[in-house]
Amino acid sequence: MNIFRLTGDLAHLLAIIILLLKIWKTRSCAGISGKSQILFAIVYTTRYLDLVTTFVSAYNTLMKIFFLASSYATMYLIYIKFKATYDHNHDTFRIEFLVAPAFVLAMLITHAYTLLEVLWTFSIYLESVAILPQLFMVSKTGEAESITSHYLFALGSYRALYILNWIYRYVMENNYDLIAIVAGIVQTVLYCDFFYLYVTKVLKGKKLQLPA
Amino acid sequence: EDWGYKHDEL
Questions:
Q1: Is residue A137 part of a domain?
Q2: Which A positions 137-196 lie with beta carbon below 8 A of chain B?
Q3: Which class for A30: exposed (0-12), middle (13-18), buried (19 or more C-beta within 10 A)?
Q4: β-sheet bridge partners, residue A144
């Protein structure tokens, strides 16, 4: 564990807490893409199957359980509890166009052909693009509430901090995983446009609004 | 194959 990895994990944790609190406090999931949340639930489910095979640490187990449970809780809030507030007309991204290619790619480029390994690789590929339905929704409506922007900023920062963690691990431990690194870079690049708007608008107290 | 690394990171 190094400082980049820890702050990355904490940013990820913060993002999820912000999202759950926003939905719970406002009793509304307006502006939140249910499609992205479905993808995150698939990502965590396929990646954390090792919960039943390998014990790393209490921290590791607790975080994995939290990410899994919170992703299902978020789906419950969006699709059941606050269904009436879900903005499905603007959440029209076809997730099969992300899930299918991620799976095919995981079958083609993976470290080993075992069930756990292929599913881990699939989850890494899928995570890198899982935010696209949410970004698509923001671009479609042309705006995002500030709280949604904070959520996106924390969620995007998490993988960017992981990249620093991977550089650190490569330098200090001569340890690296090319699949995670390339996917992590793709994931971070997808947020760049948003990061720019966040710094130039949201941090200056303005609402995130795209030019018409 | 470095499985430890894979299981450790989130």
A1: yes
A2: 162, 165, 169, 175, 177, 180
A3: middle
A4: A208
Q: Is residue A126 part of a domain?
A: yes
Distance from CA of A194 to the nearest CA of B (A): 23
Residue A188: both structure tokens together? 């971070």
State pLDDT tens for residues A172-188: 988 899 999 999 999 99
- Of B3, B4, B10, which has the smallest distance from its Cβ to A67's Cβ? B10
- Taking the C-alpha atoms of residue A169 and residue A134, their distance in angstroms, rounded to an integer, is 31
Domain that holds residue A58: 3-203
Please say whether the beta carbons of A31 and A148 come within 8 A: yes
The pLDDT tens digits of the residues spanning A17-41 come to: 999 999 999 999 999 999 999 999 9
Tell me the pLDDT of chain A averaged across its residues.
96
Mean pLDDT of A125-142: 97
Q: Is residue A117 part of a domain?
A: yes
**Residue A150 placed within a domain:** yes
Number of structural domains in chain A = 1
Q: Name the residue among A81, A78, A80, A65 with its Cα closest to residue A36.
A: A78
Structure tokens of A80?
């059941």
Q: Which token pair is A173?
A: 């431990």
For residue A69 the two structure tokens come to: 């449970």
**Are residues A67 and B6, on separate chains, in Cβ contact within 8 Å?**
no
B3 to chain A, closest Cα gap in Å: 10
